[in-house]
């Protein structure tokens, strides 16, 4: 069983998209999506997961317009596609029926919190796109949904996919400053409590949102984030699952599609690029070390 995870395309294929987006994001998004069409380099995967922010969005009208313009690209896929809600799909308005309506129209009512069968494992899709902009009832509903999906089919190991990372991918204070938004990490401790209770049953968590690539391990669980295609270094992931292992490989888009100005953790957004102790150069801060980009988990 092999699947791909793409995220943070920030595509603005709709002609009436008017909020400034990432430089050349549409060109990179179009390349990425073509790889899943017949004859594409990723047409051999069993399915693809879109881990949030596949569109740029702005308000309800532009979200609906961009999702509608995104649909023809998905219709060319030779493999099944599974969406994950990102904050740009709903503008952080999680639980708001009006803001959730375009996503529901595009993907269905059952594509917020759900499970994907994946051979020896299950993939749990969790909607945490509202970050900290959620009501207490929605926060409780999210925790209950995760608990329900974790407890179902206890004989199956599970991979969790959500848009906002559950743990900090760099030194916390450095990441908070380089990302610039409070949603640099999941702020709901009950979700990590549930993962702690699950233990080895959930060996891998995959997220996006940060526009950098990296992997950290927390209490035996590996947490992977890929930069997505909108921002440099323009990465996605391929996950291969066998009865004995989960093998993860982060891949970059072709060099001719790279645009360093799309980096949000260094110039031109900041005067200099950020680093931390484990990533002493800015390039490593963006891309992650080799062991973060390719690793294996024994089952």
Describe this structure in words.
- The protein is an alpha/beta fold.
- The chain has one domain (2-298): 4-Layer Sandwich (Purple Acid Phosphatase, chain A, domain 2), CATH 3.60.21.10.
- The protein is built from nine helices and twelve strands.
- It has helices spanning 25-34, 60-75, 87-90, 97-107, 136-151, 172-179, 189-198, 282-287, 290-293; strands at 2-6, 47-50, 81-83, 114-118, 121-126, 157-162, 204-207, 214-218, 221-225, 235-241, 245-252, 294-298.
- The strands form two sheets. It has a six-stranded mixed sheet with strand order 3-2-1-10-11-12. Strands 4-5-6-7-9-8 form a six-stranded mixed sheet.
- Helix 2 runs parallel beside helix 4 and helix 5 (136-151) runs parallel beside helix 7.
- The chain is globular and about 45 Å long.
Question: Key features?
Answer:
single chain, 299 residues, alpha/beta, Purple Acid Phosphatase, chain A, domain 2, six-stranded mixed β-sheet, 12 strands, 21% strand, globular
Which ranges are low-confidence, i.e. pLDDT below 50, for 5 or more consecutive residues? none
Task: Provide the succession of SSEs.
Answer: EHEHEHHEEHEHHEEEEEHHE
Instruction: Tell me the name of the CATH class.
Output: Alpha Beta
- How many separate domains? 1
CATH topology: Purple Acid Phosphatase, chain A, domain 2
Topology:
Elements: E1 2-6, H1 25-34, E2 47-50, H2 60-75, E3 81-83, H3 87-90, H4 97-107, E4 114-118, E5 121-126, H5 136-151, E6 157-162, H6 172-179, H7 189-198, E7 204-207, E8 214-218, E9 221-225, E10 235-241, E11 245-252, H8 282-287, H9 290-293, E12 294-298
Parallel strand pairs: 1-2, 2-3, 5-6, 6-7, 7-9
Antiparallel strand pairs: 1-10, 4-5, 8-9, 10-11, 11-12
Helix pairs in contact: 2-4, 5-7
